[in-house]
Amino acid sequence: MTATPARVTAVDTLDVRFPTSRELDGSDAMNPDPDYSAAYVVLRTDADDGHEGHGFAFTIGRGNEVQVAAIEALRPYLLGRSADALCADPASLARDLVGDSQLRWLGPEKGVMHMAIGAVLNAVWDLAAKRRGLPLWRLLAEAEPEWLVAQVDFRYLSDALTPADALGLLTRGREGAAARAGRLRARGYPAYTTSPGWLGYDDEKLARLARRAVADGFRQIKLKVGADLADDVRRCRVARAAIGPDVRLALDANQRWDVERAVTWVRALAPYEPYWIEEPTSPDDVLGHAAIRRAVAPVRVATGEHVANRVVFKQLLQAGAVDVVQIDAARVGGVNENLAILLLAAKHGVPVCPHAGGVGLCELVQHLSMFDYVALSGTTEDRAIEYVDHLHEHFLAPVVIDRAHYRTPETPGFSAEMRPDSLATYRFPDGKYWAAEREREAAGQGG
Q1: Can you give the pLDDT at residue 446?
Q2: Is residue 176 situated within a structural domain?
Q3: pLDDT in tens, 115-141
């Protein structure tokens, strides 16, 4: 008797929000009061192994319900689908989701629908890695180059990256991969920290956290800038005095400026030797980034957390507009599209330093950087993963930082799964935390 193949039987969605605005964690010039949130999805199957696929899109509060609705719109493509086929070829689902012509009209391949696609695809990769008994970075690093190439959509990329190019990069990346994996396990992947630099922190807290970061071994910290030039000059002076001359000081404007103002502002901060300026202008302004890069050198230009898709990354690289590519695990179309972006960066020889603020982004993106080191770029020179020290306690397999390095995750999956008690507490609007908030507000109004 032939066994019935396992199928996807449920696609559960949750609106999960954390009240980070209360302490101004995550605050910057463009986003002064974020409540870090996850539009969360769980794929369940009828397989005997009991494995589930977990994924999410990251938002900062209001509108998370819109992101959840976008994920729910993809449910028909998943229910009843073969779990074996999904895990064997996530690209087959990516093609179906991106190719839905009516939903595609809402992008195409950008915005809320594309982030929903990314959340679902990341959940599939989480499921695939769990079923293989491997952390995702190992599943990717140990995969055959031909299979990885088949996971990438080369439409719109072939003028800059062909399947043959990608196969060559990945084939060369296999040389010495086992030794690099061993070094990665022994030492981990370099990290830098943004934890001291939120815009809402006063100078004392900034200096104290910056000194602690250096004591903990970090060789780069990041400061939010862009609201007020005089404040930024003072805060850069405080930060540089706290960390000394030999630690890198990165700056992040979160898209606050137009091109001319970006140039003027960065030049004013140049005496404090910033290593890079991140998101100096609109993430869609390729030529603007190129102009800023020419004008502020040797300060580097970094961007990517809000870049919508592989096509814009392609143009940024073709135009010589960036010194540092910052992939985001939950902005583009999941692992599949991030593979394309990593390949583009490798072909152009541009280092990748992922964005990993928010909730759960550190957990996800560590896998992509570790794959990149072991099986593609082969180096960690001028590369580090952002680290933000909050909300990790809500995950079953949280990141571990050891001497300013990400320790390699060994738990099977994509490290995306949140703790059930955290989901129950912070589910919006009926989780225990938010229900208690409503009761407090009602009591205050009644008084």
Answers
A1: 56
A2: yes
A3: 999 999 999 999 999 999 999 999 999
Residue 407 belongs to a domain with what CATH number? 3.20.20.120
Q: Which residue has the tokens 């629908």?
A: 113
Domain of residue 96, residue span:
8-133
What pLDDT score was predicted for residue 357?
82
Residues with Cβ within 8 Å of 137's Cβ and at least 6 positions away in sequence, in order, are 366, 367, 368, 370, 371, 374, 408, 409
Cα(329)–Cα(442) distance, integer angstroms: 38
Residue 143 within any structural domain of the chain: no
Q: What is the pLDDT of residue 24?
A: 63
Which of 224, 367, 394, 405 is an active site residue?
A: 224
Query: 133: helix, coil or strand?
Result: coil
User: Residues 268, 208: one domain?
Assistant: yes
Q: Report yes or no: 72 and 103 within 8 Å, Cβ to Cβ.
A: no
| 388 neighbors 360 (Cβ within 8 angstroms) | no
| Average pLDDT of the residues of the chain | 95
Catalytic, out of 51, 289, 314, 355: 355
In the chain, the amino acid numbered 351 is P
Contact indicator for 220, 49 with CB cutoff of 8 Å? no
pTM over 0.90: yes
- Is 52 part of a structural domain of the chain? yes
In a domain, 18, yes or no: yes
355 is known as an active-site residue: yes
**What residues contact 46, with CB distance under 8 A and at least 6 apart?**
6, 7, 9
Of 68, 185, 373, give the one whose Cα is nearest residue 354. 373
